[in-house]
Design brief:
Length: 415
């Protein structure tokens, strides 16, 4: 007997609604119970309300795929079931429909998994429980379809996913941008590689820092707390009010301020050290941020700073061997990184800002394509430090560059 208390949604149902489901569409049809445009957020449902969702040939028409998945995650109960069917990317019908904004591959939902290295672009988490490739007509009778699909197009027309909603009882907090990894609490991250990289920078800085320290782009405050627990006076700033509120609640001790890194509310020469890990690539005016950092540092004060390196090993090999131009970003889809420096450019940037480079090292040498690396080092977590440690020896070609610099002392030349 069907449980009538279960809330089940058929999103984008059109004229054919699945039996026992609530029909949702932007056009009022006899089958539609709730009229709503799925490109408009938020959806008219409370958090943790829905038990099941069916989306058949609707997600490919929506503008913001990530935002849609985050809305489905929000309105679903933990462990809710979601069935999604859409056009398979190797079918000419997928491209023939001008209203299609997305296509689906077998990997379309792996980015919403805790184990994927790029999962920080969304806070939504789903477990893929089943993937089915669908064909029609005479192609049902073609033998070895999955093998042929490796080499040929138009073997399969559709792909169907079964997802389970994964909701941690203590979800990782997000900043205003809603991007895990940009302002999440790394101490609560389940990704060992991500956690090691972020925490290592603060531990590296904490070994030689004492006194009054400014943590630029402090995010949720976990890094500043590491420095604070070493007996330092810590000031943390971030432009996200949500991140600052979270830091005040969860990591008390440091003094937190919500403000821009381009206009620091502090006097000249008042800090012994500044940390700015994964911050400079987010700002509109990096030169201004460096000037402000220089202003608030005492003479001889320390700056610990890191940034992604767009000319890492794999991109360099592609340039040298295949003639591909260097990309402007490590990940071109990261809209929150405004300006990424490559290794030599980054060091010149610091020197031009009147800083003396004391040391630098790299984090994570990309020795294999990301997808292959994630399969190897994700499945074998004992070896996740291998690419990280390799980056120490070849910082110029590492994924991330970490530098220790000092504010230069003024010298007057007498002729």
């Amino acid at each position: 007997m069907e449980d009538l208390t279960r809330i089940k949604l058929n999103l984008g149902c059109g004229p054919i609604k699945k039996e026992g489901y609530i029909g949702v569409d932007k056009v009022k049809l006899p089958t539609v119970d709730i009229v709503h445009d799925l490109d408009v957020y938020p959806y008219p449902f409370e958090d943790n309300l829905v038990d099941e969702i069916c989306c058949s040939h609707i997600l490919e028409h929506l503008t913001d795929f990530n935002k849609t998945m985050e809305e489905l995650w929000r309105i679903c109960k933990p462990d809710a079931a979601i069935a999604i069917r859409g056009p398979y990317y190797k079918c000419h019908y997928a491209f023939g429909d001008a209203t299609h904004k997305h296509f689906f591959t077998e990997q379309s939902f792996i980015y919403f998994s805790d184990s994927h290295p790029f999962n920080y672009y969304s806070f939504a988490r789903f477990e893929v429980t089943k993937i089915r490739l669908i064909t029609h007509g005479f192609k049902h009778f073609i033998p070895f379809k999955k093998i042929l699909n490796l080499f040929l197009w138009n073997i399969f027309e559709e792909i169907e996913f079964k997802l389970k909603v994964n909701k941690d009882s203590n979800p990782i907090p997000l900043g205003d941008e809603g991007i895990r990894g940009e302002r999440n609490d790394i101490l609560k991250s389940k990704n060992k590689r991500e956690k090691y990289e972020h925490l290592q920078r603060y531990r590296y800085a904490s070994k030689s820092l004492k006194g009054k320290i400014l943590d630029l782009g402090c995010g949720t405050g976990y890094g500043g707390k590491i420095l604070y627990d070493r007996g330092n006076e810590i000031y943390g700033i971030d432009i996200s009010e949500k991140a600052i509120d979270y830091a005040r609640r969860n990591y008390p001790g440091p003094k937190y301020f919500c403000c821009s890194t381009e206009n620091l509310p502090f006097e000249d020469n008042c800090f012994d050290a500044v940390t700015a890990f994964e911050v400079i690539e987010h700002v509109q005016n990096p030169e201004k941020v460096l000037q402000e950092t220089y202003r608030v540092l005492k003479t001889g004060g320390d700056l610990f700073i890191s940034t992604p390196n767009s000319r890492h090993l794999l991109n360099t090999l592609k340039y040298l061997l295949l003639g591909r131009p260097y990309p402007e970003k490590v990940n071109i889809r990261n809209i929150y990184h405004i300006k990424e420096f490559y290794y030599d450019e980054f060091l010149r940037f610091l020197k031009k800002g009147k800083f003396e480079i004391i040391s630098q090292y790299g984090q994570t040498l990309p020795i294999l394509p990301c997808r292959i690396e994630s399969l190897i080092f994700g499945k074998l977590p004992l070896f996740y430090k291998i690419p990280i440690l390799l980056g120490y020896f070849i910082p110029k070609y590492a994924w991330t560059v970490v530098a220790h610099a000092k504010k230069k002392k003024w010298t007057v030349k007498i002729k």
